[in-house]
Design brief:
The chain contains eight helices and 16 strands. The chain is α+β, with helices and mostly antiparallel strands. Helix 3 crosses helix 4 and helix 4 packs antiparallel against helix 5. The protein starts with 5 loop residues before the first strand and ends with a strand. One of its GO terms (cellular component) is endoplasmic reticulum.
């Protein structure tokens, strides 16, 4: 790689090394003109372009130029300052996206687990404010059922007939219901229900053990337990409430170069999901 292909910037004392082509993603921007020596405000000092701006915020601008996506930390709050920086550099597509602050901010997500024991069975109901989280959790949880003779809760797994997976009950997009344990079928027959929660490979029949694994899974997934209470009902259900900050969908810029456009980048907005 030749020296002309590599550009070094010192922004507010923070050093950045990148390709010239990265800075030229938007030909009308000041960064593109800087590389072409068309913007005299950016001085070349000892082989580095000196820029008297905020270096910490420029790291987000560099990330945008490299990925064409706006992806900010969940605790980010300097939207207006970053928008001003984008306007200073002439990156108006980025500035326009940052003006839509409500699309970029993470939002609070609430999830509630209800658990009750009735004789030899445990009942679970999970409700979440975000339907995609419930969908993902439903893919992790599998209920298996099988029959056994003359034995109950702690029957050895080897004495079971082959277990059959059951679909979870889904009253709505925002909740799911399932149970585990044993119940009488006919004669000395028992119907047993086991629960497995990925990535754990165990099949658990004891409701308390399933509850512990479920809560641990949620905590590892970034949820925070904020309250526990007993619901005043016949089942005396225990209710566990969790919350977490869910990262917003990132916004992406699609850049198209078209003949006869004087090299001006044409941008359009589209949303891309950035995970949990």
């Amino acid at each position: 790689m030749s020296s002309r292909e590599v550009v070094v910037l010192s922004v507010g004392g923070v050093r950045f090394v990148t390709r010239a082509s990265t800075l030229q993603q938007f030909p009308e921007s000041r960064l593109a003109r800087m590389v072409s020596d068309d913007d005299q405000e950016f001085k070349l000092v000892n082989g580095e372009f000196f820029v008297d701006r905020d270096g910490a915020l420029f790291s987000y601008i560099m990330d945008f130029l490299r990925t064409l996506q706006v992806s900010l930390p969940t605790d980010f709050s300097d939207y207006q300052r970053l928008q001003r920086e984008a306007e200073f550099y002439g990156l108006y597509p980025l500035a326009n996206l940052l003006s839509q602050e409500h699309l970029l901010k993470p939002r609070l997500e609430i999830l509630e687990v209800r658990f009750s024991l009735q004789e030899m069975q445990a009942f679970f109901r999970i409700f979440g404010s975000c339907s995609t989280t419930i969908e993902a959790l439903a893919e992790q949880i599998t209920v298996f059922t099988g029959q056994q003779s003359g034995q109950g809760w702690n029957s050895p797994f080897a004495s079971q007939k082959p277990l059959v997976p059951l679909p979870l009950e889904r009253p709505s997009h925002h909740d799911m219901v399932f149970l585990c344990g044993t119940e009488y079928s006919a004669g000395d027959q028992f119907v047993a229900r086991y629960v497995s929660i990925k990535p754990d490979k165990r099949k658990l029949i004891n409701g308390t053990n399933v509850l512990g694994l479920l809560l641990d899974t949620l905590l590892k997934d970034g949820f925070r337990l904020i309250s526990t209470r007993t619901v005043p009902s016949e089942e005396k259900a225990e209710c566990y409430t969790f919350e977490r900050m869910k990262r917003a969908a990132g916004l992406a810029i699609m850049v198209n170069q078209t003949p006869g456009s004087s090299g001006v980048a044409q941008a359009r907005r589209s949303q891309v999901q950035k995970g949990k």
